[in-house]
Amino acid sequence: MNDSLNHEDPIEEAAADWLALRAEGFSSAQKREFARWCRADPRHAAAVARLEATCALLEKMPLVRAELQPVIAFPVTARSGRPVNVSRRNLSPLRVALGIAAALTIAFLTVMPFLPPSDSAAQVFTTSTGGYERVALADGSVIELNAETKVRVTLTPTNRRVELVAGEAHFTVAHDRARPFIVSAGGVAVRAVGTAFNVRLASTAVEVLVTEGKVSVAEAESVVPNARSSSASTTYVAANERTLVHLPSLTNTTPSAPAVEKIAPATVRDALSWQERKLAFSETPLSEVVAQFNRRNRVQLILGDATLAERPVGGTFAADNVEGFIRLLEGGNSIAVERQSETTVVLRAKH
Question: What is the spatial distance between Cα 263 and Cα 227, in angstroms, rounded to a whole number?
């Protein structure tokens, strides 16, 4: 077969190399380098997301998938953190597959603006206890869902809206000034154009943590129609900052803006460690460690002794291995473990 993809977009080509590497399995260094490459230019992350979205589309097309299955399994190796430089002869099958994916993506994005908006067009994504899902949207944005999370996505020619119904999600937003990206959760609206941020919906508050760029946080228009017209009700949060909006905060009066907290890079890594399916802690209070394990597991940990709350914890743990974490606490000879039921474990300080 002749390789007809002689004039590829270099960004698309680099994105394809990265995806091939990731399919084989990133090393820690490669993962960091890939993250830096995506952050270096909004077009980089958008190219990756487009290819991911179209690969997901191909998964729903059995006949095409059957033809491309040998290509999807095509091995690529590297000894460094950068994409490998493979000859076009060897890489040709992969390029053909990605060329088909790119063509399908372009066709869809060309037709989409002319489709009438409809509530029935909303897409719903969910995860179970201990689950994780990475969703690539047609606009190039990416949503990562933590465990027990549900989101509803609606893309129209004028805006991009996501409702966080439950749980926690991280959003990497493709730049599109004409179509703002708005995430609503518990009556709170987070508005962005091209940035990256995390939203967690708890029973009493909504936490917004920004990892790149800047977002505005305000009351959702659907709940308070004039909220956007009041600057007092809008809070701006920049990279390495977070804010906590307590609920219920939806009244007819203008609320005071929530406080914005500057956070250290290590704290950001701790907060987003669920994306790696591992929990990494560095002098993290046991109360926060327990909360993170509880969000990901059926077995729930309870601190039966208030003196344990601030006890520092360090180390890296599999997010779904709560039993291993419990055994580690027991082995330390300073914490007593009481199993009240199959799903409830109480931790107490030994005296």
Answer: 28
pTM of the entire structure? Answer: 0.53
The C-alpha atoms of residue 39 and residue 34 are separated, in whole angstroms, by 9
CA distance 338 to 157: 55
What integer pLDDT is reported at residue 68 of this predicted model? 45
- Largest Cα separation within the chain, whole Å, is 75
The tens digit of pLDDT for each residue in 58-95 reads 555 554 445 444 443 333 333 334 444 433 334 434 44
Sign of CA pseudo-dihedral 318, 319, 323, 325: positive
Domains, the chain, with CATH or none = 10-114 (no CATH), 119-263 (2.60.120.1440), 277-349 (3.55.50.30)
Q: Is the distance from CB of 277 to CB of 319 less than 8 angstroms?
A: yes
What is the C-alpha separation between 33 and 28, in angstroms, rounded?
A: 9
Q: Residue range 305-331: average pLDDT?
A: 87
Predicted confidence at residue 60, as pLDDT, reads 54
Spatial distance between the Cα atoms of 85 and 90, rounded to a whole number of angstroms: 11
H/E segment holding residue 188: strand 188-192
Q: What is the mean pLDDT of the chain?
A: 75
pLDDT, tens digit, for every residue of 150-176? 999 998 888 899 999 999 999 999 888
Region of 332 please: left (phi>0), alpha (psi -120 to 50) or beta: alpha
User: What pLDDT, on the 0 to 100 scale, is given for residue 301?
Assistant: 93
Measured between alpha carbons, how far is residue 230 from residues 236, 253, 254 in Å? 13, 11, 8
Q: Are 337 and 329 in contact (CB under 8 A)?
A: yes
Work out the number of other CB atoms within 10 angstroms of the CB of residue 212: 19
Predicted pLDDT of residue 269: 84
DSSP state of 32: H
Residue-wise over 173-209: b if at least 16 C-beta within 10 A, else e? bbbbeebebbbbbbbbbbbbbbbbbbbbbbeebbbbb
